[in-house]
Amino acid sequence: MKIDQFNMNFPGEGDMALVFATDDAGAVIGTVFVKRAGVHVAEFARFFVREGERRRGVGRALINRAVEVAQKAGCSSISCAVHPENKRAILFYTRLGFMAAFHFGDGDILMTRPVAPAGGPS
Length: 122
Ligand SMILES: CC(C)(COP(=O)(O)OP(=O)(O)OC[C@H]1O[C@@H](n2cnc3c(N)ncnc32)[C@H](O)[C@@H]1OP(=O)(O)O)[C@@H](O)C(=O)NCCC(=O)NCCS
Fold this sequence. Notes:
The chain is α+β, with helices and mostly antiparallel strands. The chain has helices spanning 58-72, 87-95, and strands at 2-10, 14-22, 28-38, 41-49, 77-82, 99-103, 109-114. The chain has a 7-stranded mixed sheet with strand order 1-2-3-4-5-7-6, covered by helices on one side.
């Protein structure tokens, strides 16, 4: 498994990166899209690992890279919204140190975790 990324900068949208995982044949097996949501805040979406490739550390590797992207961008936290019935994802985020920070009006939960400053202890 290999983790790679495309960096993008759209006017008015700020820095973004499409982080993706590929298998040994080069096929994409997972993605996460990370972007700046505020001066010190990063968020991600479209986080998905292909069925049959799950529980092998692909999701963890994708989020670790997304955290690095946020760290290099000077962000102090990274967040995502999750549906409350997506227990698998909530267990995943909890395992990776995310905490439920906020409940949106539509029921979605904002999961967030701090990002250590670049160059400091991780
Ligand atoms: C959530 C998702 C991305 C996790 O990807 P993954 O590659 O399976 O995750 P990892 O293998 O890196 O798991 C890391 C840890 O998270 C936890 N975890 C992951 N899936 C879990 C599950 N189904 N049940 C319980 N814990 C789980 C485990 O602690 C796991 O470590 P372990 O396997 O050593 O026990 C994947 O299940 C997925 O694509 N789901 C559908 C899309 C989705 O819900 N995306 C999130 C939208 S908010």
